[in-house]
Amino acid sequence: MSTYGKSVPLLEAERAKGSRAGQLSGGSKIFIDAPSTSGSPRTSPVFLMVTVEVVLVAGWVLMGEITQAFPNLTHYPAMFAGVSCASYVIFLIPWAVLRRSRGLRLPSKASLIHVNNIMLPLGLMWLVQIWFWYMSLKGMSVSVNTIIYQTTPLVVFFFDLFFNGPSPGYVLKLGCIVVAVFGIIVMSSSDTKESNGVTNSLSSCIEVSVATLLYGLFDVLYAQWAAPVCDKISKKGERITYSNSSDNLSSQIESMFLLLGLRAVPACMFLICTLLVGLYDQDLPDYSRGDLLAMLSVTVADWAFNIAMCIGLVTLSPLWVTMGTILCVPAALVFDMLVKGLVLSLGACIGAKKSAAEPVAVGRLAAIAVLELVLVTSWVLTGEIAQAFPNLTHYPAMFAGVSCASYVIFLIPWAVLRRSRGLRLPSTASLIHMNNIMLLLGFMWLLQMWAWYMSLKGMSVALNIIIYQTTPLVVFFIDLFINGTTPSYIPKLLCILLAVLGIIVMSASDAEESNGVTNSLSSCIEVSVATLLYGLFDVLYAQWAAPVCDKISKKGERITYSNSSDNLSSQIESMFLLLGLRAVPACIFLICTLLVGLYDHDLPDYSRADILGMVWVPLADWAFNIAMSIGLVLLSPLWVTMGTIPCVPTALIFDMLAKGLTLSVGAWMGALCTAVGFIAFNVISSREKDNTRHHCDESG
């Protein structure tokens, strides 16, 4: 909280009594933290979140639809913003009534001036951001405007990070925000008929950027500065009648009404000045009765939106509120589809799904579902791009080297994350120790990719898939050799055999490309070596590299104090370090090839599309390997290799839907076997983990 909010003697006296309202660590909690002795109602956080979200979305969509239907409303953006903001002065009436109903006199003049001084800059900030947003619509397409304005969650995230420092799970939250914003970009880029012929002027881009920054800053300052100070004032005063009602809920509602009313002061001053100057005397649009009714409806919808926003800012968080407003965009698209007959493109539907991502509690089932989705999607994407651009794999060693070496970029987020945790970089000895481990694993990883790309040239794709997808069997027996048997190892083996059998049936049934292809012995050896190295890499990574790296990540000389939980951050830091260090052998390989000049005169003539494809393949490969690294640590190497098996039926189904491939009965039977084996394996693993946890609880 600002020191400005702590300097008033009136508030210092309240602090001495143990008031919690001014603490920076969360503010007041409407409905949730009401003391049980007061008899106030207690509503679950989920119910509150759903209610606030419904009001936010409904208010936003209603405002947008009415504004589009009555263009006269935004003919003068400054005037419309001023009227809309000034209308909030009416909330001072229910504030005064509610305060008197609690048996309290109105606050002292000094207290009101103090709160008003706080709300003057915030109200001005609010007015200017609305004004700038309306102005920006005139000189740019709605799609670009939406993309820029809906990056507000990122603005709030970094403002909150600046004011309060990192919180537990902040990296996970950032990932969810990026996915949601990416969904908005996909939606806005896919359905932009109104953008044709519209030139996006620099001034409009600056205006909407200023509006976005002011909106994010307003949310953070409102929750951490204005609301706690106002709550202190609302909770004290000279009582004139006795009241048995709970003061906690009433004082918070009273605070909300007061802040809503005071934020209108700058807008009222603006309107008074424009009336005195006579700025709009002879230039106002000819408002019809419908326009006036629409203006009233927009104002009421805006009230509902801002009341829900204020409750969310104080009860939940500024970040939650801005993430909640992101859902307004897909809701508006769905509304247009149902009411106006708008046909949504595939990109808009995909973007809507991505923008629904919110920070949630991740259990085992959710982790499995998310990791499996990333593994399958990235695997299929990599395969489709590699098939579409054959030049990429013309030199398998070079392509594997570039792909592996690109992971060196993950050393940057590793260093940033470590410093954000208040730790110095590890000692040279620790880094050398970790690098020595990853040299072997990184070389193994590079070699298996190289061998697999080479094997594709001398054998059918069907046989290649059959051999490579036996990796779960390789991991199973390596794990059995290193760790011994587990209680459910026989059922797991049967599930793996069933899934691999499904792959064999699918590959043997749909292998038109195999006709006339001679499967050379050297290619069979290469794919077998790749399979063995892939399985060995997974086991050694999970049981050797990850635990050692985790120890290094959890220790270090702390240079700044941090209240955040180190467990999740250290695991993410370990993952980034291992991803970065595994690139060292590939970097050495590329440097050697450049020094020797191996590819100086023999590189394929890459087109612009080839280069774009080469960029997309490492990005998909990054997603695959990040998911794989998380799965190796959180789940098991066996699960990761089993998790890649559904990629094969998914790729076949994708080819059926996108390319018109006709699948045989054998392919469908194989896909069914693979699905049954994969699901049964996860059920057995989950039960085994639950039994292990149960035995640990009993022994503890």
From TrEMBL:
The UniProt transmembrane annotation reads 46-63, 75-98, 110-134, 170-188, 256-280, 292-314, 320-339, 360-381, 393-417, 437-455, 461-482, 489-508, 575-599, 660-684
Q: Which SUPFAM superfamilies match?
A: Multidrug resistance efflux transporter EmrE
Q: Which InterPro entries match?
A: EmrE-like, Solute_c_fam_35_mem_F3/F4
Instruction: Print the keywords alphabetically.
Output: Membrane, Transmembrane, Transmembrane helix
This protein is called what? Uncharacterized protein
